[in-house]
Amino acid sequence: MSVKTLTIDGIDIAIEEGSTLLDAAKEAGVEIPTLCHLEGVSDVGACRLCLVEVKGINKLLPACVTEVSEGMEVQTQTAQLQDYRRMTVELLFSEGNHVCAFCVANGNCELQDVAIAVGMDHSRFEYRFPNREVDISHPQFGIDHNRCILCTRCVRVCDQIEGAHVWDVSGRGGTAKIISGLNQPWGEVDACTSCGKCVNACPTGSIFRKGTTTAEKESDREKLEFLVNARTKHQWTR
């Protein structure tokens, strides 16, 4: 088994070939912020929060989908990267309707956590206040598109672990949105098994259990651990 050696923020790392820069950073104890990354499912590089600088390459690379190579010299905390990450989070807040004081995930939201980590205390961008709907047609769950950040974690968990293929992304740019079925109300999608994996995978309060109110959505650590190991251990039910 081939091993690659590289440095991350000056720390020497030896890691298995085929690993990503995000894997290597974790091995080095270096924290890189992420939102679309979820252990146990494939990475897509959607949120762009994990961008890093690699010596000799004149563009920023997403750590979650960039494989390690021999001799890489990686920087993860430069002033440029910190500015870009802060701007990315500001854009996420300004393009949606994230009213934390009334959100089910308030206090237990990965978007909030990342905003604190990158030092965001306001957005320099004008808020768009898009007109987005809430779908509560499912008997157990609901989806509030105002809080969605298009990380696609729900899509990948449903496809790769549950195998139900309920969720997908429709549209492009500002019109992009998560849809259930062929843009049907969630409650009318026969493929949904009501497993709740998408609820646990969602990093914000976008997908939630009915009956929860402000700050009541909490991650089930046992279910998250199951999601991480389901594909490798071929354990599809819990």
From TrEMBL:
PROSITE patterns: 2FE2S_FER_2 (PS51085), 4FE4S_FER_1 (PS00198), 4FE4S_FER_2 (PS51379), 4FE4S_HC3 (PS51839). Keywords: 4Fe-4S, Iron, Iron-sulfur, Metal-binding. SUPFAM superfamilies: 2Fe-2S ferredoxin-like (SSF54292), 4Fe-4S ferredoxins (SSF54862). It comes from the Bacteria. Residues 139-170, 183-212 form the 4Fe-4S ferredoxin-type domain. Pfam families: Fer2_4 (PF13510), Fer4_Nqo3 (PF22117), NADH-G_4Fe-4S_3 (PF10588). SMART domains: NADH-G_4Fe-4S_3. Residues 1-80 form the 2Fe-2S ferredoxin-type domain. PANTHER family: HYDROGENASE SUBUNIT, PHOTOSYSTEM I IRON-SULFUR CENTER-RELATED. NCBIfam families: PRK07569.1. This is Bidirectional hydrogenase complex protein HoxU. It comes from Roseofilum halophilum BLCC-M91.
